[in-house]
Amino acid sequence: MKAMILAAGRGERMRPLTDVTPKPLLEAGGKPLIVWHIEKLARAGYTELIINHAHLGEKLEAALGDGSRFGVSIRYSSEIEALETAGGIANAMPLLGPEPFLVVNGDIFCDYDFTALPRELGEFSAWLVLVDNPDHHPDGDFLLRQGRVLDDGEHKLTFSGIGIYRPELFAAIARGTKARLAPLLREQMAAGRVGGEYHRGLWLDVGTPQRLQELDDLLGTLGGKCTLNR
């Protein structure tokens, strides 16, 4: 199964850090955020990676290259301007191919074990990993009930930014156009076609300089004991 890392966002809340550095290349624990993802995906057996980019994309490609030093193959999907999540995925479809694929937000940090993800979706068109609601997103996104993800009810959880999708989900989106992921998922949820699971471990949305510093401090505390492949 191929994996895509979403890395095209401008990172407005991270300015001025992102004025000169792509958000995925900001460092925590002595390592760029996106490298934590790449190394973890490689350990889980995901060796064909696609990374989209827009803002300062040439710096991202220069830093990561073809992925060989990480034990993976990296191909890039370039966007003139960020196309949002679904638009970015649709734009990368020629690289992703006809089989289900994994997508990971480039601006999260999580100790989820990618080997635990299902390799077959069965009746589902998408599979989402949900986490506890952080303080900055207390109402959550979706409800998890008996292995299905729903868009109603109370006790919602937060979508982690980790999911598996069938390519058909993005078939109606023209390449190069902006499109959000949430409306597509809600349509599938209404039809009972989104499965999911709850991850109770470490998860951070690294969206601000403060959260980046918090992550850096945490990784500094964990030091060499932090494998993030539990």
Mean pLDDT: 91
Class by helix and strand content?
A: alpha/beta
Give the tally of β-strands: 13
Element string (H = helix, E = strand): EEEHEHEHHEEEEEEHEEH
Lateral arrangement of strands in the main beta sheet: 5-4-1-6-11-8-12
Helical element count? 6
How would you classify the quaternary structure? Answer: single chain
Query: What sort of overall outline do the alpha carbons produce when their principal axes are compared?
Result: globular
Q: Termini distance?
A: 20 Å
Task: Tell me the radius of gyration.
Answer: 17 Å
Amount of beta strand? 15-25%
For the biggest sheet, the summary is: 7 strands, mixed
Proportion of helical residues: 10-25%
Low-confidence stretches: 224-230
Describe this structure in words.
- The structure is a single chain.
- The chain has six helices and 13 strands.
- The chain has 230 residues and is α/β, with parallel strands linked by helices.
- Strands 5-4-1-6-11-8-12 form a seven-stranded mixed β-sheet, with helices on both faces.
Provide a concise account of the structure shown.
The protein has 230 residues and is of the alpha/beta class. The chain has six helices and 13 strands. The strands form four sheets. Strands 5-4-1-6-11-8-12 form a seven-stranded mixed β-sheet, with helices on both faces.
List the helices and strands and how they pair.
Layout: E1 3-6, E2 27-28, E3 31-32, H1 33-43, E4 48-53, H2 57-64, E5 73-78, H3 84-91, H4 93-96, E6 101-105, E7 108-110, E8 126-131, E9 143-145, E10 148-150, E11 158-165, H5 181-190, E12 194-198, E13 203-205, H6 209-222
Parallel strand pairs: 1-4, 1-6, 4-5, 8-12
Antiparallel strand pairs: 2-3, 6-11, 7-13, 8-11, 9-10
